[in-house]
Structure formats: C-alpha cells, structure tokens
Model the fold of this input.
Amino acid sequence: MLTTKPRGVNDILPDEVWKWHYVENYLRDLAGRFGFQELRIPIFEHTELFQRGIGDTSDVVEKEMYTFTDRGDRSLTLRPEGTAGVARSFVENKLYSGTLPGKYYYVGPMFRYDRPQAGRYRQFNQFGIETIGGHEPAIDSEAVAFAYEIFHGLGLENVLVHLNSVGCPVCRKAYRAALQDHLRPALHDLCETCQTRFDRNPMRILDCKSKHCHELVQGAPSITQYLCEDCQNHFDQVKKILEAMGIPYAVDQNLVRGLDYYTRTAFEITAGKEGSQSAICGGGRYDNLIEEIGGPALPGIGFALGMERLLLTLEQQGSQLQKPDSCDVFVAGLGGNAEILTSQLCHSLRLSGLRVQRDYQGKGLKAQMKAADRVAAKIVLIIGDDEIARQAVICRQMANGEQTTISVNDAVSYVQQKLSAIKVEGDIK
Ligand code: HAM
Done:
C-alpha cells in the first residue's frame, strides 16, 4: 500500500454512511421547522478572516489552523468552523438588505490541527446555524431551544444545556480587571498556556482543562456579578423564555467558550455519561463580529454541533436508528443464457423506481438466494433456462416463500403490486 490516511481523519464506510444520511435528513428537517435555510460556504477562506473573526488569542487561531500559501502567494486556511465564513458571506452578498434576521444553516467538514482522540479529529463535520441581524432575547432562546431539541428529539439521555452570559465589552472591562486581581497572586502556579492568557484573555483561564488551573479559579469572581444592566436584563429574559418553553438548562458561570467573538449568551450541550465534560454542541451570541469583518453593525447568534460526537453519543447510548431498506428486488439469473434478460429486467425495474441488486459472477441458485437474504431483498426474481424458453420469470416472496411464475412483460407491474401489498401488510402490523 502506497500510503494510509493522515492522522485524525476518517473514512465513512458504506456500512456507516446511512447513519449520517439519517441524522443529516433529521437536522435539515428540523432546520426547516425552525425557519432556517441552507447556506453553503467555501471550505477555505483568506486566513485573515479567521484571524480577525475568531480572534488571535483563541487556541483555534493560535495553534490549530491548517494554513497554506497557494500558487498565487495568498495565505488561505481550511475553515476551522463555520461562523466566520457565514458572517463573511452575509456581508459580501449583502444579505443584510433582505429580511432580518437572516437565518442560515450549514453542514460540512471543518479542520483543526488538534491532538486526535475519540470524538476529536483533524477533519470533522459540523452542523451549525447562524441567526444574523436580531438582538432580541427570543432569538437567543430559540437558538438554545433548537440545539436542545436536536438531542432531545433523537431520544438522547442526560442532555444538559450549560448556559452563561459572557457580557459585552463594557461589562467585561471591569470583570477582566477583577479576575486579574484575583488570579495575580497565583499567576506563577497557572499552567504555561494560562500564564500567557493572563494578559491577553484572562477569561479563558476559567475553562482551562488543567486540573490545577481548575482548582486555582475556584472562588474567582464570576462574570454574572459584573454584567451591566442591559446584559443582565437580556440574560434574565433569555432564561425566562427558556423556562416558558420548557427547555431545561443550568447556569454555568465558568462557561466562557474558546472563540473570541462571543458576547452575552454562551452555551454548550453535553449528553454523555453523567459528569462527562465533552460538549457535543456549542454556541452563543457574537454581536460585534459582523462589524469587525467590515459589515454593518448587526448582531448574531448561532451554534454548531460535531456530527461525529453526536453519532458517537447515539452509539454509546444504544440508540436504534431506522436503517433504510437497501434492496426491494434481487434478480437471480442462472447460467450464461440468462445474462441479457437479467440485465434488461434489472434496468426496467430500476427505471420504475425500485432498488434492485443482482449477481454478476454466474453463481448458483443457492448462493444467489443467500446473497438476496444478506441484502434483505423482499422479492427475488429467478430466471433459468426454462423461464427463458417461456419468456417468463419466477417471482418469490422472501417473507413467506410464496412463488408464482409470470410473463416477463408483466414482471415490473407484478413486482410493484406485490411490494405495495407487502408494505401495506407491514404498516398494518
Ligand atoms: P466549537 O465549540 O468550537 O464552536 O465547535 C462546536 C462543536 O464542534 C463542538 O461542540 C464539537 O462537538 C465539535 N468539534 C469541535 N472541534 C472538534 C474536533 N476537533 N473533532 C470533532 N468535533 C469537534 C464553533 O465551532 C462555533 N463556530 C459555534 C458557533 C456557531 N457559535 C456561534 N455560531
């Protein structure tokens, strides 16, 4: 073998891909119900979009971007997330001149150079939404409710919404100073990364994964004590609406999120084993991002979930997704003489809308019946020398073994009738 796949990327094999289709269809349907339309953004963008948009002090920009220079000497970056790209597209295509807020969703691969482990990859897939152009708390509550409903609707257990307000630049200024005052005596005990965060972005120290830093921030002042009146009222109203909608949440004062654009509402969702810390979904408000990248001063809010983490959680919780049927009819041609009729029949059945499989290797009847069983064919059409001579086929219903010989010309309509009858029986049961 010449080479294997790079570290941190995955092949999604045919045996797994149906689960992706299932979840993607579910998400697209839910997005429609919440009034979101799909926006397809490029996989790579100019590097400065992420530097300005996500922020220079975030781990993503500092350590995790796949950045390269193209043949035209431009610095480009594989998108590490979708929000910056959606914001750029919103501004560049003047979507702000349409109805506001604009509500968009996206699904696709993202790239981060991180240490791979279960649920953390270098190429991973996100489903995300962004609502741009509305500052009302009802928009925040709708985003949280949508995110919650994704996991709740899939039947996951232990779905927890961790909610916080990270304030605005006004309240953050006072909070930042208070937090630095609190942490200063322990500055040299913080991990190396947090020591560099102390001046640049001290709030990130609050959600450092190092156990020691975690202990040191216990008792630190919380942003909620420093929220300005507007941010406090906004947060109170978001919570009130969530309660009215019946969306459970827990305020987590240490939740600050890893990307620099957040303002006010920030949230994450976990649905792992009890106490599990890894978020399947994260999001929040970004009221200055659109202006920051050169657009009008319009606020935004959104979230993204990791598709791999969602599928992993479904698997861990033993959720049964409905696997679609892969085959309606198996056409079993026996011997070289059946080759042409088998091909013809398969083609006509496929054109009539049915999922059809067959053997290509001249296997015997027993082996072909086994193959039909493996793909869970509901009907097998058998064509042997006798049938060719009579221009007929044997139609066998797999569930009860019932067999009828029919003329080749009637085969397609007969099979369709039989399949509808099988479906009705199944629905009644
Ligand atoms: P994020 O928290 O960086 O937020 O990522 C959202 C989700 O993507 C995470 O909760 C996780 O499930 C998944 N994810 C992130 N990194 C990886 C990885 N290396 N491997 C597997 N899954 C991963 C954002 O990306 C924001 N753009 C969300 C947002 C939208 N905020 C506002 N609008």
